[in-house]
Amino acid sequence: MPYWRLSSFYFFYFASLGALVPFWGLYLQDLGFSALAIGQLMAILMATKIVAPNVWGWIADRTGQSMGIVRLASLLSLLIFLGIFAVQGFWGMALVMIGFSFFWNAALPQMEVVTINHLGTRLRRYAGIRLWGSVGFILAVMALGALVEERGSAVVPVAVVVLQLAIWITSLLVVERPVEIRAGTNTASILNLLRRPEIAAFLLSCLLMQMSHGVYYAFYSIYLAQAGYASVTIGALWAWGVLVEVLVFANMHHLLERFGARRVLLTSLALAVLRWLLIGAFVAQPGILILAQALHAATFGAFHAAAIHLTHHYFTGRIQGRGQALYNSLAYGVGGAIGSLSSGLLWSDVGPLAAFIFSALAAALGFMAAWFWVDREKRY
Predict the structure, then answer these.
(1) Is 0.90 surpassed by the pTM of this model?
(2) How many CB atoms lie within 10 A of CB 154?
(3) Residue-level pLDDT at 180
């Protein structure tokens, strides 16, 4: 198994995310965009996940060339992002972000397929590879937080370009591993699988969980800056959340073996409710923010590992590429876009606390969907 080549891709991919998510909103704010416009532009990053992973997942399942798609998508996302330095105004920025994110969002689901195929029967070891993405995120937010503090937010797009180049280079190092079709492997259509209540409820709970993260990804850094926190401190808080996530990823195979994916999913959703309420109500209390950020280990890390495990269980064989794409598009695409747009509206019209309460309600609904339908036979 090419452990370090796979891990390197995750490292740079999520380092790029670490440059975009915490600081892109601040960069857009410094360019003069309003809260509503920032919410809309951040929603573009999520909304393209509705279409892109499914298009590329369908192509990958037909051609068996997941890594070819990863390499092409990585290169085109880099080239299109360079347009950021040439455009002005909302629509110019929106067009570049649409093109960039359409290809950027195509790469990760197919890399998940390649990684899972390399792991084979050792699927619970996935988190040991994925944790390097969290390490990349931590280093990116810490380094970029210091650079933004010293030189301003103009360094953000430059950092993203450098990291996108690294993503493309590492994609060239990973070899394809063909999907093994075993006897009894699920070859049912996606639509037939979606008629199963446990699968529909699972995807709905994933959508609601990522919907609850919309305000966090779009406005958390802005919220902290408005409360008087320095860029270095903002970066440190982001990094702290992901550092605890790394510890969870490192032990995720033990957690899944002991508690099962259902319990991990439910616990993560319950802790998400608590997290958003703490951030919304106690932004002026650093100690509470540190505690709330530690919950990122559950709301993203543990939840994502359990979701990948269940997606692999539900969508196997010739439809695994489309299964991973469907999970990404519904959760991070539809859910993320709705979360970003709704938080932008609430932030502008009602206030930050209302946006975080809305996020907590979304996570609570996700908990209910998972509790009543996901793997009911394993309820104990």
Answers:
(1) no
(2) 12
(3) 56
